[in-house]
Each structure stands twice: as structure tokens, then as C-alpha cells.
Amino acid sequence: MPAFLHGRVQRLEALLTTSSAALGTYNRFDLDLPDVVVSFLDSAIESHRALGLPDVENEMLALKSQYVSAQRGVQPFTLEQVTTRRREMARSIALRVLLDSAARLRDELAADHQSLDDGRTQLRPIVLSAIHKGFTSADHQPTITQAELDALWAAITIDADLQLAARQLTMQLSQPDIQLLLAELLA
To answer: What is the CA radius of gyration of the chain?
Structure first.
């Protein structure tokens, strides 16, 4: 069953906002940078666990391990104990960790947005055909009810001409995503 992309996008966008705040903390040379970095990474780890993305969760755990090592005075790439300029080393690792995690979040968001855009593109001709067949009106109010969406999608899925395209779409997107896109296109 496909993941609910709209929900995932919202969660990842919130995480990206937190990432931006952490980068702001770095840029301002705030003294609470260690707590902010660890807190952000913990949020990223938990979010990816909740989203069922164990590979990204593992990547975020690895980034946290690098930062924790730097905080303890161990250079995470050479595993050598650092005795001088430990704060500078830890700060540079904090930046690297924040940049790597932000890049990963942006990539995830771009992929999810692309999947939704692809679904929207596939749904447009289906909606136009449904309007042409009289399943729904082209003149919708700004909001459409859930019952109207359910009835429209049911009509689309049993129509001989639209059934195959609808099934293909349900293999790529979750039912809630399809209905949100459907409501968006009808609004």
C-alpha cells in the first residue's frame, strides 16, 4: 500500500523548518548549539522511524553518532582523540551534520512532491472525462464534501473507460492522497 504522501510532506516540511532553525543557531554562534543539534537529530530520527523509513532513520543515527563523537573529542572520520581545538572540530562537524541532514530532507521532499505532481498529472484527464460523462459538475464550490469525493471516485473506479487509469493511480498513491488531489483539481 502506498504511503500517505501529503502527511509525509507535512512532517518533512516541519522537520526542514527545524533544520533551518538549527542552521540559524549555528550561524549566530549561539552557545546552545550542541543541544539544538542533538534535539534536531533526535526529531529527525523519530520522524523517520514514525514514517517507516528505516534507511533514513539509520542515516540520521549515523549523523548523530558523528556529532556525539566530536562532542566527546574524537574526530569521527579518523577516530583519533583530539586534544587541541576540540570546540572548533565539534563545531565543524555540527555544520557538516546539519548540512547533510538538510540535503537529505530536501531530497525526500522533492521526491514526494514529484510523486504528487505525477499523480496530479495522471488524475487530470480522469477528472476531465468524469466531468464530460456527467459524474460531477465543473462548477464546484470552493469546498467539496467527503461524500461527494467518495461518490465521484466510486463512479470513476467502476466506469469501463476510466477504471484502468484509476487502478494504475491507486497503485502509485494512497487513497487519501488521491482524494486530496481530486478535491484540489475540482476546487
So the answer is: 23
